[in-house]
Structure to design on (696 residues):
């Protein structure tokens, strides 16, 4: 099942290569990591072919992770949007996001490879929390790299990781966000490769990570496809998911890629707007380039220097994207659109008010896009599966600060007049 | 019958000349245009004056995953000053009077963004003899190596103590000029060279190639240079030299670089003569 290389080819590189999706992917890493990547490829191949591995994974996902997550018909949101919206509730999975799907699988791989330590990068903190959780569960040592700016924006998740026994390292270099956390994790891995597994959280990085993460996140669409057929009947018109590095989106798309009548729509973060220079809409605005071990689409200048991304969402604030998404975009199988900070905040607010669900800012981009563009793009009453990739507890401080909403915080806590 | 590219021949001559003097070659890395283009040029001149046999000119990339804090900081300062790849190649052109082989060290993203063909042409036109791309592994390198060879450029590949024998053969098969043996598992400028492991790596590489083997990453002073020079064909020093350029008044940076390179050169010369 690894690396099916479907047609048509996206570019002139016509020869399908191992570890590539069309022209994208590959393994651009220092030689010190070569042995670890070979070991990982072999461990994954062995695990993927081992019914015992899958049985353990399924049991953990069910009893520990809370799977299957529900598919929920959001009737009031649907009415507001003019399309029929079904939410795939990854926010109800253990740790509050889809990230747990991947980390449990990779932690099992780390154990199979005899590696007692895992490291991870994190943007919004969701992958860091999930990794710290799996490390606690399996008795692994854990270090999480997180941009210093993101530590500030997502303080709750920093505390959660520390409670779970992980060491959190704030990264002060570069833009102090996700891309710099990945650089620092790579440097750690180069230095400690013999006892450490780099538990990459997104569908990016050198081969075989994009494939492993897709296969471990595939459970999202395996479930949603069966649930949609049982609950709504037939096929949806579109599957919509937010895209930063692209792990929830690739898991949401995986089972539908070979079903062309279902549109696949990835929603990137447009920050202050496409063309504003303050955006994270990589596929919309970027160019083909190598970043973090693979060739994909990246926000780069003419010299190849990576440009800072911007998004209200720390999890989407990344100037690259997983190589399979680059291929799905170039081949035309999936469509990538962008939602601004303002649209995401509107999606956040409407989902709270209409459905009683506080979403993470990442999937709020998908909600915001559907509210604004769904009916016009897909037609009145179109049936949509939208992946609610995480819950928004971590984001409430940031949302109140950024949006400047008066939600009664002052009244509730009596600015200056509290009793203590 | 293949013709040895001009750049490779010049690099091999430099290593042969050092070997003829009974010592290893000294390869010095400095971040290009750091702290500014004029001072940078003077630093490279001082390094050669003090005994550098080969120069590596670092072209900064925004996300250098192989580099530790010293080179990261220098890279970032150069990028923040608005220095582009074109400015770096112009600097190389200004070093034409220095009669040592010159290689550019950067990341694959920089070469790939311009297109391998154009980047190779620009490097050759600037007077470079070779290129080092530490995140381009041998199995991804075919297209680049073809362009480099067409332009007379050598390409130096890195080998690691965790590389399998099969991979070492592949690396030795594509690496021209020298094979770069990494002295430790890690990034530049943090830890010291791991003696036994590196000695064994050099011996393993020698079993599969006649190309000279130089050791870099973890060499920082006279004694570590001497230690490595006792068993390798070349000694590569980067972070320590960049630190010398960075720490203190920029006006005297060339003086500090020259003083350190003289120390390193003395360390290399003092190593016990190598047999065979």
């Amino acid at each position: 099942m690894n690396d099916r290389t479907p047609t048509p080819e996206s570019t002139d590189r016509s020869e399908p290569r191992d570890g590539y999706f069309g022209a994208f992917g590959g393994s651009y890493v220092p030689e010190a990591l070569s042995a670890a990547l070979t070991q990982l490829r072999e461990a994954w191949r062995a695990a993927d072919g081992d019914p015992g591995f899958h049985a353990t994974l399924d049991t953990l996902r069910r009893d520990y992770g809370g799977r299957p997550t529900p598919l929920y018909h959001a009737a009031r949101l649907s009415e507001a949007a003019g399309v029929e919206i079904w939410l795939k509730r990854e926010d109800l999975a253990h740790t509050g996001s889809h990230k747990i799907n991947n980390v449990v699988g990779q932690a099992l791989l780390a154990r199979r490879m005899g590696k007692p330590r895992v490291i991870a990068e994190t943007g919004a903190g969701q992958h860091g929390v999930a990794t710290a959780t799996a490390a606690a569960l399996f008795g692994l040592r854990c270090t999480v790299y997180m941009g210093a700016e993101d530590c500030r924006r997502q303080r709750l998740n920093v505390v959660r990781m520390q409670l779970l026994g992980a060491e959190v390292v704030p990264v002060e270099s570069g833009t102090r966000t996700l891309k710099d956390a990945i650089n620092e994790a790579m440097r750690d891995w180069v230095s400690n490769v013999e006892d450490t597994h780099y538990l990459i959280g997104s569908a990016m990085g050198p081969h075989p990570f994009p494939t492993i993460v897709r296969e471990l996140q595939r459970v999202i669409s395996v479930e949603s496809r069966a649930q949609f057929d049982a609950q709504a009947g037939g096929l949806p018109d579109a599957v919509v998911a937010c895209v930063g590095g692209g792990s929830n989106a690739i898991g949401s798309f995986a089972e539908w890629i070979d079903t062309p009548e279902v549109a696949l729509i990835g929603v990137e973060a447009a920050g202050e707007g496409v063309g504003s220079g303050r955006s994270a809409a990589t596929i919309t605005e970027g160019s083909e380039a190598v970043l973090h071990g693979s060739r994909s689409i990246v926000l780069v200048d003419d010299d190849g220097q990576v440009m800072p991304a911007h998004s209200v969402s720390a999890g989407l604030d990344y100037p690259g994207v997983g190589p399979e998404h680059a291929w799905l975009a170039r081949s035309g199988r999936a469509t990538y659109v962008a939602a601004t900070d303002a649209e995401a905040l509107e999606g956040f607010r409407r989902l709270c008010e209409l459905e009683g669900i506080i979403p993470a800012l990442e999937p709020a981009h998908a909600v915001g896009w559907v509210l604004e563009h769904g009916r016009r793009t897909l037609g009145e009453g179109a049936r949509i599966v939208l992946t609610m990739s995480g819950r928004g507890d971590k984001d409430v401080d940031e949302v109140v600060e950024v949006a400047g909403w008066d939600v009664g915080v002052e009244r509730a806590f009596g600015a200056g007049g509290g009793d203590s | 019958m293949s013709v040895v590219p001009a750049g490779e021949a010049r690099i091999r001559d430099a290593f042969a000349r050092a070997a003829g003097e009974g010592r290893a070659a000294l390869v010095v890395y400095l971040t290009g245009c750091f702290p500014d283009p004029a001072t940078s040029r003077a630093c490279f001149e001082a390094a050669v004056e003090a005994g550098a046999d080969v120069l590596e000119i670092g072209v900064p990339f925004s996300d250098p995953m192989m580099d530790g804090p010293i080179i990261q900081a220098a890279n970032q300062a150069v990028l923040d000053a608005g220095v582009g790849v074109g400015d770096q190649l112009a600097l190389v052109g200004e070093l034409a009077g220095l009669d040592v082989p010159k290689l550019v060290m950067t990341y694959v993203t920089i070469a790939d963004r311009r297109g391998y063909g154009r980047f190779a042409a620009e490097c050759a036109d600037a007077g470079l003899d070779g290129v080092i791309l530490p995140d381009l592994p041998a199995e991804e390198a075919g297209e680049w190596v073809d362009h480099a060879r067409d332009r007379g450029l050598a390409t130096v590949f890195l080998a690691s103590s965790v590389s399998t024998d099969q991979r070492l053969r592949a690396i030795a098969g594509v690496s021209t000029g020298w094979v770069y043996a990494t002295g430790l598992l890690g990034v530049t400028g943090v830890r010291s060279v791991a003696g036994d492991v590196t000695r064994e790596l050099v011996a393993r590489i020698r079993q599969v190639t006649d190309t000279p083997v130089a050791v870099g990453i973890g060499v920082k002073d006279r004694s570590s240079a001497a230690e490595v020079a006792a068993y390798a064909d070349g000694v590569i020093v980067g972070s320590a030299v960049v630190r010398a350029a960075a720490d203190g008044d920029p006006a005297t940076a060339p003086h500090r670089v020259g003083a350190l390179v003289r120390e390193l050169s003395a360390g290399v010369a003092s190593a016990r003569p190598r047999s065979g």
The two ends of chain A are 61 Å apart (CA to CA). Chain A has a mean pLDDT of 92. The interface with chain B takes residues 26-32, 34-36, 38, 173-174, 179-180, 183, 186-187, 190-194, 287, 289-293, 295, 298, 300, 302-306 of chain A (CB under 8 Å).
